[in-house]
From TrEMBL:
This is Cytochrome P450 2G1. Its cofactor is heme. PROSITE patterns: CYTOCHROME_P450. It is a peripheral membrane protein. It comes from the Eukaryota. It comes from Chelydra serpentina (Snapping turtle). Belongs to the cytochrome P450 family. It is found in: Endoplasmic reticulum membrane; Microsome membrane. The lineage of its organism: Eukaryota, Metazoa, Chordata, Craniata, Vertebrata. Keywords: Endoplasmic reticulum, Heme, Iron, Membrane, Metal-binding, Microsome, Monooxygenase, Oxidoreductase.
Length: 469
């Protein structure tokens, strides 16, 4: 009996073929999962090809799974597109003991790197100043901000993973950023969605979905070269970065046959950190600047708060965040509204699990639709409207909202959440301290629809005029 749903969450419903954008949460289409939620309730099954998955919609169902039943839902669900490349190695896609070892190590290492000779805040602040200088080069003329923003964010994770940053004119690094952006686009393409549904067939067919292999190979080779470089100059008494810390751990556990600290996990964990740590924050900032151009009255209030708390004579600091409730609320609302990872990364139950009257067999893949929590009308008064008031109380103070799950929640919460929050605040406030962002087109004509929408929402392309303040 444990091999079958007992009783099965309804319906199961087969996802339309080919899998199109309506399956995913977005601000301008009533998405397929929410249509099914309205019809069947917050827990139901869908068939991705022949693959049966459980879908959870709404804050209450997502919280109940990821927080109240955190241990049971702590497995990483299958993603055939990525499983064909990573085979369950690396910190984000690992399971069981491998995941526990890599996760614990990675969280501790990120924390320790933040307490070293140069704190994470100092690294981000330095990069924010570099981003300001890049923006200043446009001299107020319209420019595409995506590359300098991506480069600045990538340099932060580079300083953590590799111990140094890259010049904004470094062609090798610029090519690497192009690969990362292309990889995100491919992962949100209909071809990749077809692969998720029919991996047994699609893996043998030619097509754009195979470009993912090439993109990941580029990242793999880059990281492997950096690992080799660190091995030649390693000082066990003075780790410089995540790679050094991992190499030291490998040496400490080389006699342990159960250890997951080996070169394959090192390289793929760094690929995961570099890939996720670059595009997630970058995409949020790009969406944020676009939203501030569309809503200049919001931008003006942020300017006023920055001037009142930070002023013009010093750079913003992380400690300013507690005294800037409106700016803090705007950043949260940008994350909520942009909904960068609408489905979240799939989970799996690690044992037979009773959930809301259903028995979910061990290994069942579960999509906790984060976008359905971020757009839950029970927790956000008008979820399709951009409104920083969602995170402000009646006195203008910052107000937490438990349905805010942009970083997911539970045991699989984003391990770089603290770093990402600091990056968003410092990049955001440093740029707005120095510039007023204006659109070359009428704000009412700005289209907020994603460039691509699948497992990720890719921000649209746009140009911005950054006018010195």
């Amino acid at each position: 009996r444990s091999r079958f749903f007992n009783p099965p969450p309804p319906p199961p419903e087969r996802v339309p073929f080919p899998l199109q954008r309506p399956f995913f949460p977005s601000s301008d289409l009533h998405p397929f999962p929410l249509q099914l939620r309205d019809k069947y309730g917050p827990v139901f099954t869908v068939l991705l090809g022949s693959r049966r998955v459980v879908v959870l919609c709404g804050h209450e169902a997502v919280k109940e799974a990821l927080v109240d039943h955190a241990e049971e839902f702590s497995g990483r669900g299958g993603m055939p597109t990525l499983d064909r490349i990573f085979h369950g190695y690396g910190v984000i896609l690992a399971n069981r003991e491998r995941w526990k070892q890599l996760r614990q190590f990675s969280v501790a290492t990120l924390r320790n790197l933040g307490m070293g000779k140069r704190t994470l805040e100092e690294r981000i602040a330095e990069e924010a100043e570099c981003l300001v200088e890049e923006i200043r080069k446009a001299r107020g003329s319209p420019f595409d901000p995506s590359r300098p923003i991506s480069h600045a964010v990538a340099n932060v994770i580079s300083s953590v993973a590799f111990g140094d940053r890259f010049d904004y004119q470094d062609q090798m690094f610029l090519s690497l950023l192009d690969v990362i952006q292309s990889l995100f686009l491919e992962l949100s393409s209909p071809w990749t969605q077809l692969y998720e549904m029919f991996p047994g067939i699609m893996r043998f067919l030619p097509g754009p979905h195979n470009r993912i292999l090439t993109h990941v190979a580029v990242l793999h080779n880059f990281v492997s070269e950096r690992v080799q470089r660190n091995q030649k100059t390693l000082d066990p008494g003075c780790p410089r970065d995540y790679i050094d810390a991992f190499l030291i751990k490998m040496e400490e556990e080389k006699q342990n046959p159960q250890s997951e600290f080996h070169t394959k996990n090192l390289v793929l964990s760094v690929v995961h950190l570099f890939f996720g740590g670059t595009e997630m924050v970058s995409a949020t900032l790009r969406y944020g600047f676009l939203l501030l151009m569309k809503y200049p009255e919001v931008q003006e209030k942020v300017h006023q708060e920055i001037d009142g708390v930070v002023g013009r004579n010093r750079s913003p600091a992380a400690e300013d965040r507690s005294r800037m409730p409106y700016t803090h609320a705007v950043i949260h609302e940008i994350q909520r509204f942009s909904n960068i990872i609408p489905l979240g990364i799939p989970h799996a139950v690690i044992r037979d699990t009773q959930f809301r009257g259903y028995t979910l067999p061990k290994g069942t893949d579960v999509f906790c639709v984060l976008g359905s929590a971020l757009q839950d009308p029970g927790h956000f008064s008008d979820p399709e409207r951009f409104d920083p008031g969602n995170f402000l109380d009646e006195n203008g103070g910052f107000k937490k909202n438990h349905a805010f799950v942009a970083f997911s929640s539970g045991k699989r919460v984003c391990l770089g959440e603290g770093l990402a929050r600091m990056e968003l605040f410092l990049f955001f406030t440093t740029v707005l301290q120095r510039f007023t962002l204006q659109s070359p087109v009428d704000p009412q004509e700005i289209d907020l629809a994603p460039k691509a929408s699948g497992f990720w929402n890719i921000p649209p392309e746009y140009r911005v005029c950054a006018l010195p303040r």
